[in-house]
Design goal:
homodimer, about 250 residues, 5 helices, about 25% helix, Thioesterase superfamily member 5 (chains A, B), long-chain fatty acyl-CoA hydrolase activity (chains A, B), HotDog_dom_sf (chains A, B), Thioestr_dom (chains A, B)
Chain lengths: ~250, ~250
């Protein structure tokens, strides 16, 4: 029922609003074809050679649970199926050579831009996370360890920090699974607080792709699955990135 | 319908889960009386004299829209009605002398803890915001200017940064309006992207307080109200903070 309602609302409301807003998304054509295969999206997103720093690598701040589950998934990448996503400082690095659809004004590239979930550079203090993606099953797992700069209630991660981690994992998954670019909605039911410094595992699944929208669900829980931290869902709008004709 | 569903779900689901989880929230009694008046909550929350740095003060990074709307609301605090909320480095500073209900294990106070929305100390790079609260009408306004470290799509604020700003504004409002302590749910419909460095205004209203839950809604828009960035709602669980018997 929720999905049906979201479809209707999205068609009549959010998507319409996005497309009507002349200052933000003028001239977009949501009916464009979505021809990029997941393979080509993934190979562009995960360059084999790059000088860019990958922030999704183990460091001394990772708790034993985080480290061992990371190694477990890294093993799974060798036998095929799972892919470890690199995590650069900015989304600009992830979409090199591409740009948002025409009409989306992009501010100057000269500044010091950071993707929100990599806003705190000190290891262990802010976001520690690594995302693994399974192209054929269109699902992801995000290992998330909130640091003390992500606090809400004393000793626990801020609900907003988990919301942002969900949105970021959803958006990477949506892009790779089907060129999902913009979050239309995000719904979260919080169940338990995540202690700062501990591991939370986000299990993300693309439920369906329909009417140029991706419907994604997520269960966030402890590694032993005994504690559910949150259940959530999100809807993303498909839009194709354009080839950059000139470097800014 | 959403609210009715949430009530039922919250009673049967989230709240139950929170209360059942022995490691996170053992021994809480949600049926405790909520005797604290909004006035006493506000006066404790907004100390007239404090050595703590208030981060919700104008600085050179604020755009003209942010600055002038801040001054406008500051004028309104003089004639009564509106109150400017201070914003300290940590929630621990906001609840000095109080602690979370028994059973909620709090990690050591020795570390460098920061509330998530004040995680980036450099002016203008991360979160710039100020919250004004209207006790008798149980509503808030948050002036929010996302910096370049809060980026999602190039040039625009990450959806998760707005989600966190909502959760933070909701939680302060919920606490002062009726001792709302824990986010049970957060639902966001994104309409337009917020350009980095511009002002977004969150208009937050407590719709009702029922069955120990606060139901909150929010419209986030540009100052001229011509662009709606998002519409959202949240549900918070009421729980009383306890008096701290000994300093850690």
């Amino acid at each position: 029922m929720l999905r049906r309602a979201l479809q209707v609302v999205a068609r009549c409301g959010q998507q319409g609003a996005l497309l009507r807003a002349p200052r933000i998304l003028p001239g977009l054509n949501p009916a464009s074809a979505f021809g990029s295969s997941t393979d080509s999206l993934v190979s562009r997103f995960c360059p084999e050679k790059t000088d860019l720093k990958d922030y999704a690598l183990p460091n001394a701040s990772w708790c034993p649970d985080m480290l061992s589950l990371y190694q477990e998934f890294l093993e799974k990448t060798k036998s095929g199926g799972w892919i470890k996503l690199p995590s650069f400082k900015s989304n600009r690095d992830h979409i090199q050579g591409l740009k948002l659809p025409s009409g989306l004004a992009v501010a100057s590239d000269k500044g010091d831009w950071r993707i929100f979930t990599r806003c705190i550079p000190v290891e262990g203090q802010g976001y520690e996370y690594a995302i693994f993606f399974h192209p054929s099953e269109k699902k992801s797992v995000c290992l998330f360890q909130p640091g003390p700069y992500l606090e809400g209630a004393p000793g626990f991660a801020h609900g907003g920090s988990l919301a942002a981690m969900m949105d970021e994992t959803f958006s990477k998954t949506a892009y790779l699974a089907g060129e999902g670019l913009f979050t239309l909605s995000l719904n979260i039911r919080f169940k338990n607080l995540i202690p700062v410094g501990s591991l939370a595992v986000l299990n993300v699944v693309v439920e369906k792709i329909e009417d140029q929208k991706l419907y994604i669900s997520c269960v966030t829980q402890s590694r032993d699955q005994q504690t559910v931290y949150a259940k959530s869902s999100g809807v993303f709008l498909q839009l194709q990135l354009e080839t950059e004709s000139s470097q800014q």
